Here is the input.
Amino acid sequence: MALASINPTTTEAWTQLQEHFKSIEHKHLRTLFAENSNRAKDFTINWEDFYVDFSKHRIDETTKKLLLKLAKEVKLEEAITKKFDGEIINETEGRAVLHTALRAKRDQTVLIDGVDVIPEIYEVKSKIKSFADAVINGEFKGHTNKSFTDIVNIGIGGSDLGPAMVVESLSYYKNHLKTHFVNNVDGDHFQEVIKRLDPETTLFVIVSKTFTTQETLSNANSIREWFLETAPKEAVSKHFVAVSTNIKNVKAFGIDEANIFPMWDWVGGRFSLWSAVGLSIALSVGYHNFEKLLEGANKMDLHFKNTSFDKNIPVMAALITVWYNNFFNVETEAVIPYTQYLNQFATYLQQGIMESNGKGVARNGEKVNYQTGTIVWGEPGSNSQHAFFQLIHQGTKLIPADFIGFATSLHGNKDHQDKLMSNFFAQTEALMNGKTQEEVEQELRLKGATSLEINKLALFKVFEGNRPTTTYFIEKLTPESLGKLIAMYEHKIFVQGIVWNIFSYDQFGVELGKELANKILSEFDNLEPSAHDASTSALVKHYKSYY
Ligand code: F6P
Here is the structure.
């Protein structure tokens, strides 16, 4: 077994954490700050352009010590070495997990079955570069000899979310090409995208690791049909390229071998934006920026690999999540970026986090007897302040939140930036400190409220506070800092999976729905659908009544 199987609840640290929890459970963050005047400094990690403040968490030095002990007891250090060494840590699929190799330096060696994969990775990178350069500068043209103006990425899940999020996040760095994403099998979706496109100047990038995914193939086939309404068959090879491990199926689709960008089974879909899956990123922001994104991720990889756990950003972030998930019984965590550019960041993380750690069987094949993967959600601030923040501030649920902010705005509007950042700082302060009943009453009194009015209103205006947050405060949103941030979450996911003793790199949980959808699809033309439960049968029958 590549990874040890250790039930975290059987460790000494776990029992000690349970005991320690009793002393922290009702302690207010205000008290924790009062007890340690160095708290802000003690719980902040400064690394490169990242200032990561963990001090607004319901932890103290003992919590930290015990969480680090837990990491040791579940053999995190060994697991990290095994991961980077290319051992088969995705045991249920018999694969290594080496998205980190995609951003490794040229002089590094990464062996899979005794073969160094770095030369192959750099060969594909150079292919991405030449192709992206040729499309951007107009050398690679469509079948009527016109340069491309639009790129359409056709993919879903990991073959869509990563590229789509990065392209939007880096829109400031974008070139003249307009990038679109077709993902949903909903036919109205692709129609809405293509209605704005000129087939003569559009390049389609079909991204599918397996090249068997229903959504992607349906969209690719329908879009090819639409394209062929105005173009000869031979034109397909000039307008469609593909990223896949399934070369046979891609060729059968009509794509030129020269226009197939390979990927590897040791790169999971949700961690694949660093491979040729990121072709639409390279096309949108230029290869040099794609390279910077990879460089940033590589820096985070080295930080993760080489830094002691108490100063290790992904390790600390992951252990704190475990603390809330397994001791406070918290179920969800929010991610709130204070930049509109990261609008799709939480959606992207949902696949990374929930497809990886939404598992209920331990590495020894037994059902887990503790909580695993958290639910992640979020929207950019300040918008979200006017949407769901009420519940985070005064609701009955404890929701730890990641606040991500950038010191410098890209267009340099200081007035807006000051307002944005004041909100960024104010929210974590408010969530932590809250407002006591005395403070509320005093405030009302000063506003001239009567005792009757104060008695009636005060409790509704109280903020308990003690709501934990991490602040990721980064100098500027650049391809490099974004690469670091994404890689940080990737490693955080890995650490959580190690502690929870699950396999983070398979995704069998998405299969059952796919199987049943195929079965139901095949039944639409039958007179009598095969047996389902009464509810599903009635729904299928009701649908069929429309056609
Ligand atoms: O539905 C799950 C999934 O397998 C994801 O893990 C993956 O990212 C997505 O589907 C797309 O798969 P493919 O790249 O093979 O089309």
About this structure: The radius of gyration is 26 Å. The chain has 22 helices and 13 strands. The mean pLDDT is 97. The chain has four domains: 8-73+307-433+477-506, 114-291, 434-466, 509-544.
